[in-house]
Amino acid sequence: MLPAVAWYALFFLVPLAFIAVTSLGEVSGYSDIAYTWTLDNYRYLWDDFVGDLHLYRDIFLETLKLSVVGTLSTLVIGFPLAYYIARYAKHKTLLLLLVIVPFWTSFLIRAYAWLIVLDPEFPVFRALGLTGFMERHEILFTPNAVYIGVAYNYLPLMVLPLYAALERIDWSLVDAAQDLGDPPWRAFRRITFPLALPGVLAGSLLVFIPLTGEYIIPVILGGNKTFYAGNLIAQQFLESEDWPLGSAIAMVVIGALTIALVVYARALGRQEQHS
């Protein structure tokens, strides 16, 4: 395991240590960093969160909302798709290939593709407006456009672990439950969903974690009008050149993700004990 541990330490733990050390410094002059080992950046963020400023609290709450909505939307869309592929599809390999195909394209290109699709002058929107089916609302450069882009780009990360969990289910258990009088919904609640729960937790984690630092989709589809934690960190590093504050914000996000990982590990452990 030494090569894997060395790779992990070199490209994750060492950069993380640099960020942690930088978060304890302060700006000196225009853009220099003085490593004064102070917690002022964290105090500033805490005072903003519990005080009356709320400069960053609303951004953190919007980031949490984006992560939760994105995770739930991919779960709602991805679970029926994974369920169909695992239980009923005849050409599973082909359907899984279609799910994976977007990963063959650059994340940036996929985001720019929705920039074209969500344009009010796109033929689909123009046709719907002419037929009176829907009014030509501006979706582009709104939070709704960001949510659509997130659901599309992160859907494969939810479908694949769901499919892996559903594929291992013995469907004769569901058939037996229905033969003994359970309606389909009760059989799903009592058998299918508990057995698929590890896939639900794994997919939710794979979507939730990167969404807390999502940067590209809000910039492209949101027009940089809606700020999230990823945009805020980039602004501190690239525009304000306040690297200590940007590092402190990044460490706060990492701390929140660590809590999410602990909750996930405990939930998975309890599920394995019950199973």
Short recap of the structure:
With 275 residues, the protein is mainly alpha-helical. It is built from twelve helices and two strands, in the order αββααααααααααα.
Question: Key terms for this structure?
Answer:
275 residues; mainly alpha; MetI-like fold; two-stranded antiparallel ribbon; 12 helices; 2 strands; 2% strand
In words, what does this structure look like?
- It is a single chain.
- The chain has 275 residues and is mostly helical.
- It has one domain: MetI-like (MetI-like fold).
- The chain is built from twelve helices and two strands, in the order H-E-E-H-H-H-H-H-H-H-H-H-H-H.
- It has helices at residues 2-23, 40-50, 57-87, 92-100, 107-117, 123-131, 143-167, 171-179, 184-211, 216-220, 229-238, 243-274, and strands at 26-28, 32-34.
- The chain has a two-stranded antiparallel sheet.
- Strand 1 (26-28) and strand 2 (32-34) form a beta hairpin.
- Helix 9 runs antiparallel to helix 12 (243-274).
- The chain is globular.
- The two termini are 30 Å apart.
- The model has no long low-confidence stretch (mean pLDDT 88).
